[in-house]
Amino acid sequence: MDWELLLAIFPQVVMDGLVLGFMYALIALGYTMVYGVLELINFAHSEIFMVGGFVGVEILLTMQATGWLDTFNPFVILIFIILMGMAVSGVLAVVVERVAYRPLRGAPRLIPLISAIGVSFFLQDLVRLGESLWRNAFYLTYPSFAAFNTRIEIAETIDFSVKSVIVVVASLAMLFALQFLVTRTKLGKAIRAVAEDQPTASLMGVNVNRIISLTFLIGGAMGGAAGVLFGVQYNTINPFTGFIPGIKAFTAAVLGGIGNIPGAMVGGLVLGLLEAFAASYLSLLTGGAFGAEYKDIFAFSILIVILIFRPRGLLGEVVRERT
Amino acid sequence: MLDVSDLHVFYGEIHALKGISLSVGTGEIVALLGPNGAGKTTTVKTISGLIAPRSGRIDLEGGALAGVPAHEIVYRGVAHAPEGRRIFNRLSVVENLEMGAYTRHDGRITADIERVFTLFPRLRERHTQVAGTLSGGEQQMLAIGRALMANPRLLLLDEPSMGLAPVVVEQIFDTIREVNRQGTTILLVEQNAAMALEIAHRGYVLETGTVVLTGTATDLAANTDVRRAYLGE
After folding, report:
1. Assembly ipTM
2. In a mutagenesis test of the A interface, which of B48, B92, B102, B113 is the best target, namely the one with the most A β-carbons within 10 Å?
3. Which residue among A196, A197, A205 places its CB closest to the CB of B103?
């Protein structure tokens, strides 16, 4: 076995894993926050993510057409499209809750789940229809920025692209902001109270419906940001882009302990790193018997093993039931 | 202060409250007694807005409460410590108390947390602890303290003695009396009629959704029907 090669690519693999992992973590937050408050698996969240990616590409393509892309600093443009993606996806998530979930609040658990799957298909086809009419294509490519593709050389064998660093830094900033919001602010306390006991939260003066809307807004905004970052990192986007990252982010949320915000972050990172390691090392370690295409099987096998031993997830807690 | 008249509440087809009327005067402790299923909890839940009445009036110092959602009723000065305590298990003791003060924006919240700690010194010892790890008695203290944090004019207490050891019940009832002395009007739901009548000024006895008896606490405690049904004689 070529240990030298193994070691040489290690930092690169870790960086790839972190980029992927932070992306999963950002998306996983949307699943976990909504689950924490409503015990609903919001299957439409992968489409909220996808829509964020389309907001980014639409703005960039429009700017390219008008020539503005070259007049502004790429980092300013990036921050702008992230914020726009967050705004559109956040508002979309709130609308989805109002239209598709709130009317079903008292219904059995399965009903809003079906509604979520319906919303998911609806949004995919809506975007496909819209883009087909508007651009005659629904597989769109992000205009590339030389500034983001530059590689920062750290050592002879280690270099990271600027856009990877952007993904990591932007995700970390958002994760910390969210963690601060939830654990340190009055609003965060209200979110946790609503997650635990809605009627009692309302007895405290909390407008439960408003907190639920806010939860969708925050989760949707994180998903939208992830969508833009995904587009910048991997360059292409289509109406069905959301599915695979969505499923993986949902898995990450379960792995971390669904409903648990730090858990979603940890779960995302673990999944991303496992996947990156499998993609780079599987063929090296097995002498070519298993290639990078087995990365998902490898990653998910490990997840199953983890969940067998920790069924509530890595950070899932056992909360004593109320008497 | 509180006037409830001819209140009717339905759970689906079930007629849970069949025309309840009661009143609570400023500064009073009024006890709501009766067996399981009489409608005591339904009555306080309707007052605090968790349940909307089919018909009837709930007036708090002139303002109508019937049909107003729970989260707005808190702003009118009604706090409700619900049955089964319902503290936020995953929040700390202090965070629970801060949730109680959710409607307030004044600078005296810290001082009022201190006041709760003075009423219930046990809570001070455990103030950073996650509330789910408290004992039953401590959770009840926290539930009452949390309701007090709203600075209510009217405090609704639902079964504060439920599931607690007699010594702890004594402590909690002493504190309820103390809270009342400090100026909070209280409507107290209790199955433990003996304890309730000891601290209450007046009482109502409910059976199957109607008021069957009312009077001063002394009269009710002396009433032979009450003694037979609720005081174990």
Report:
1. 0.94
2. B102
3. A205
Q: Do A322 and B71 touch (CB under 8 A)?
A: no
The model's pLDDT over A37-49, given as tens digits with 9 standing for 90+, comes to 998 999 999 999 9
Question: Whole-model pTM?
Answer: 0.91
Residue of B nearest to A317 (CA): B90
| pLDDT tens column, A183-214 | 999 999 999 999 999 999 999 999 999 999 99
Tokens of A75: 């980092």
CB atoms within 10 A of CB A288: 9
* CA A55 vs CA A23, A61, A92, B6: distances in Å: 17, 10, 12, 57
| C-alpha–C-alpha distance, residues B84 and A203, integer Å | 14
Q: Name which of B74, B90, B136 is nearest A203 (Cβ-Cβ).
A: B74
Nearest chain A Cα distance for residue B78, angstroms: 9
A317 is written with which tokens?
């807690």
Task: Delimit the domains of chain B by residue range.
Answer: 2-86+136-230
The distance of B221 to chain A (nearest Cα, Å) reads 31
**Secondary-structure class of domain B2-86+136-230 per CATH:** alpha beta
Within 8 A by CB and 6+ apart from A176, the residues are none
Give the pLDDT band of residue B62 (cuts 50, 70, 90): confident
> Burial of A315 by CB count in 10 Å (0-12 exposed, 13-18 middle, 19+ buried)?
middle
